[in-house]
Design a protein that fits this description.
By secondary structure, the chain is mostly helical. The protein is built from seven helices and no strands. It is elongated. The relative contact order is 0.13.
Length: 219
């Protein structure tokens, strides 16, 4: 009985840590999205400096999962939960890294001061990426497979926005061939936002696996 209590207590603690990680990552993505618009140098530096917090928690969660697997040898739904935590934990850490990459990309873009350096409007794309991350976290918290599946449609919208950005950047490079670095960095910023959306979909797929026990892959 004591063993059973300890095991489920450890699972509860692990779940709380994953939700803490999710909240940290969501905050960082929201901040990165704001930085695209504000280009606030102090906020940029603060986000970059705090990246280690997510890295440390990611390692801690993975170690907890491995310890529980070794000590308790879980089966059925408990094993599914641990597998899901390990995968979502990794996705969250990569999303946090992408938020830092967005900041660094904005820093690079901000260095250009030529006539062709016209800002691209990423507001809709960043808003959609932030919303998708929130939705996949809500689906995780609520065990909502239906909400998780709704991200598959959202992802198509973000992909379409990225394609529009790509076509726009090709035109900009033709009109401003002397500064390809500026325009390439701008496109890569859109690519980072798209990757956040992709990873939100990956998390949604893991939520479906946790709830229903079915493996879902979106292509």
């Amino acid at each position: 009985m004591e063993h059973h209590f300890t095991f489920h207590h450890e699972l509860e603690k692990l779940n709380k840590k994953l939700l803490t990680m999710s909240a940290m990552v969501e905050e960082r993505v929201r901040t990165a999205a704001q930085i695209i618009e504000t280009k606030d140098q102090e906020v940029m530096q603060a986000l970059i400096r705090s990246d280690y917090e997510v890295d440390d928690l990611e390692i801690e969660i993975e170690e907890d999962c491995l310890k529980i697997l070794a000590l308790h040898q879980p089966v059925a739904k408990d094993l599914r939960f641990l597998i899901t935590v390990i995968k979502i934990n990794g996705e969250m850490e990569k999303i946090a890294n992408t938020a830092v990459n967005i900041v660094k990309r904005v820093q690079n873009i901000s260095k250009f001061k030529h006539a062709g350096a016209i800002s691209y409007d990423f507001s809709k794309m960043s808003e959609k990426a932030v919303l998708m991350l929130k939705k996949c976290i809500d689906a995780l918290v609520g065990g909502d497979a239906t909400l998780a599946r709704s991200l598959f449609v959202d992802d198509d919208e973000v992909d379409a926005m990225k394609d529009l950005c790509y076509e726009d950047i090709k035109v900009r490079i033709r009109n401003d061939p002397e500064h390809p670095g500026y325009h390439i960095n701008t496109f890569l910023l859109g690519r980072h936002l798209e990757r956040i959306a992709d990873r939100a979909v990956n998390i949604a797929s893991e939520v479906i696996y946790l709830v229903e026990g079915t493996i879902t892959r979106v292509h």
